[in-house]
Write a structure and sequence with these properties.
This protein is globular. The two termini are 31 Å apart. By secondary structure, the protein is an all-alpha fold. Helices cover 69% and strands 0% of the residues.
Length: 422
């Protein structure tokens, strides 16, 4: 079996609206995830709010199971598609614009505002300039805490570099390329049936379990590789999801098997989300290993159910999908600090928590949408910093929020694309 042929000018580019739609919706769901931390007893350092409920621990841990792993799967999938039509150098430049620039911009602006507020909530006193001159500010950068939710982008960057290096080092007719495609294709054939798909979930969970367990045996695996960066464990914990995304892009057969609708998956995903098996420090090695396996099979069940759901119901694309895809990065970048700011403002509000939580979600998401519509879509410099693009003229020709959601679902935006790993 040979490597799939690269698209030519005469070959229409396939748009994966379902996968891009899943990524976009999960970016929006991240707002609820982080708003939940304001009210979760397990996260007492998030603002000074004391009105908390155990339900939010269950909610945020459940969402955590699948949101970020799905992002890494999508990152690997679209990295391959981009490398099929770009040189490694062009790919890296594209990823620099779309990943590094927004990372630096948010880290130096919104994340610093959030860290200043966290410092005040923890008992720090003084102005923003006082905080900049304090040991707490140095600790934020030396410990890597500056990343906050941006750790996802920090972890993706080495994976993109590795992808470009492999593309550069291996000739198109390389035996290794052929073996990779063959392995992905055969795995797709193996899990095509319903029972064998369940076996595939077990196999994927075993690989992830081995990946996690290996770090418990490596000295220093949980220490920072460099000041302000990440540990080897943090850097590679999500790598298997990226790799499976790569495999799905290499093999249409595997992709078809992964997104094929199976009647029992909604029930399995519901059970996985409800029970949420997590390992903890009090467990012994053997028990912890079992819990890691159950945790990983839960994660893969949720990821693949999401992909199957969006493939079944959201493959058509259209103005809504296009708008969501364009706004998704803005939502990811900006919402975290806004959740903290609004959460702090609501500390002294004595509303029932069940009413306050949706208000916090709507305030944070609504502010990001307004920023996206009024700034990111209109000004080239803002779009570059927050989106890695300068296509303001082109994006303004596409429907905005109200026009996109007012349009009939059958309408599609010509030339819409979802080829964006982040």
């Amino acid at each position: 079996m040979t490597t799939p042929a690269l698209p030519t000018a005469a070959t229409p580019r396939k748009h994966y609206h379902d996968i891009d739609g899943a990524r976009s919706v999960l970016m929006f769901l991240s707002v609820a995830l982080h708003a939940g931390t304001v009210y979760a007893p397990a996260r007492p350092w998030i603002t000074g709010n004391v009105d908390r409920a155990a339900f939010f621990d269950w909610l945020i841990f459940g969402i955590h199971l699948f949101v970020t792993p799905t992002f890494f799967f999508v990152g690997g999938f679209f990295a391959v598609l981009l490398l099929k039509r770009q040189s490694p150098a062009s790919f890296l430049w594209n990823r620099f614009l779309r990943t590094v620039i927004p990372l630096v911009f948010i880290a130096l602006s919104f994340n610093m505002v959030e860290h200043y507020l966290r410092w005040g909530d923890a008992g720090g006193q003084g102005s923003f300039l006082d905080w900049l001159a304090s040991p707490a500010f140095v600790e934020v950068w030396a410990s890597g805490k500056w990343q906050l939710h941006l750790w996802f982008l920090v972890s993706l960057i080495p994976m993109f570099v590795l992808s470009a290096a492999v593309q550069f080092a291996l000739p198109q007719d390389s035996r290794l390329r052929s073996l990779a495609v063959t392995a992905a294709d055969r795995f797709g054939g193996l899990i095509g049936g319903s029972a064998t798909f369940a076996f595939g979930l077990v196999l994927l969970a075993c690989v992830d379990t081995a990946n996690y367990a290996s770090f418990s045996l490596i000295p220093g695996a949980y220490d920072l590789i460099a000041p302000g960066f990440q540990s080897w464990h943090k850097l590679t914990a999500e790598f298997p999801f990226f790799v499976v995304g790569v495999m799905a892009a290499l093999s249409p057969r595997l992709l078809a098997a992964l997104v094929k609708w199976r009647w029992w998956m909604p029930y399995a995903a519901a059970a996985a989300f409800i029970f949420q098996p997590y390992p903890n420090a009090e467990q012994g090695f053997a028990e912890g290993l079992v819990m890691i396996f159950l945790n990983e099979i839960t994660i893969w069940t949720l990821i693949l159910f999401i992909l199957q759901f969006f493939h079944r119901y959201f493959s058509e694309g259209g103005p809504r999908t296009t708008w969501l895809a364009d706004c998704a990065l803005s939502m990811y970048l900006f919402h975290h600090s806004l959740v903290y700011i609004y959460g702090q403002m609501l500390v002294d509000v004595r509303w029932p928590v069940w009413a306050e939580f949706p208000i916090l979600v709507l305030l944070a998401a609504g502010t990001v949408i307004a920023m996206h519509e009024l700034l990111v879509r209109r000004y080239a410099i803002v779009r570059l910093l927050a989106n890695g693009k300068t296509d303001v003229a082109e994006i303004r020709r596409q429907p905005g929020l109200f026009a996109a959601f007012a349009a009939p679902r059958r309408d599609k935006v010509a030339g819409s694309t979802g080829l964006s790993p982040v």
